[in-house]
Amino acid sequence: MDETPTPVQSLAGFLLGAHPNLIDPNFNRSVVLLSAHSNEDGALGVIINRPTGKSLGALREDMNTPLLENLPVYEGGPVSPEEILLVAWKWNLSRQHFRLFFGLEPDKLQELVDADPTIEARAFLGYSGWSAGQLETEVSRFDWAISPFVHPFGKMPPQNLWRQLLEKIRPEWGVLADFPDDPSVN
């Protein structure tokens, strides 16, 4: 098995799957969708597999259109957890890529979904951020498995996404994913 880390270039639009031994509670068993990344400026994204079980309307009374009030809310990351970010993406399955809309205003999100109901939309509390060089260091330590954000990952139930992502892109990590967080309960 090749132990050389994936070279880090721009990872905007990629997924990061946390290594099973990454114990940082902010990222343990998380999958992050990166919206921006450069070696000079760092990286920005949201955790896409931590639903809060709440809708946006339950958190904000001013989000009272049917789309917004029913929009699922996820924990986006440890940075500014009181801030709400609206994010959407659109798949082009024939070309196996997607278009990401990050940090949308409510009216713009409504406009996008009205024009194309196939757009996936979510709200996030906070976001995940890395300073310049920080993500590259973490990748070189094998803290993250890296994958393009291809169609099946965006449609998987959040509770299955982390394990299935690891099994697909780093099968040896998929085996570790079955281990309990606390081995003493094994």
TrEMBL record:
SUPFAM superfamilies, per database record: VC0467-like (SSF143456)
GO cellular component: cytosol
Pfam families: DUF179
Coiled coil: none
PANTHER family membership: UNCHARACTERIZED PROTEIN YQGE (PTHR30327), UPF0301 PROTEIN YQGE (PTHR30327:SF1)
Similarity comment text for this entry: Belongs to the UPF0301 (AlgH) family.
Stated name of the protein: YqgE/AlgH family protein
Originating species: Oceanipulchritudo coccoides
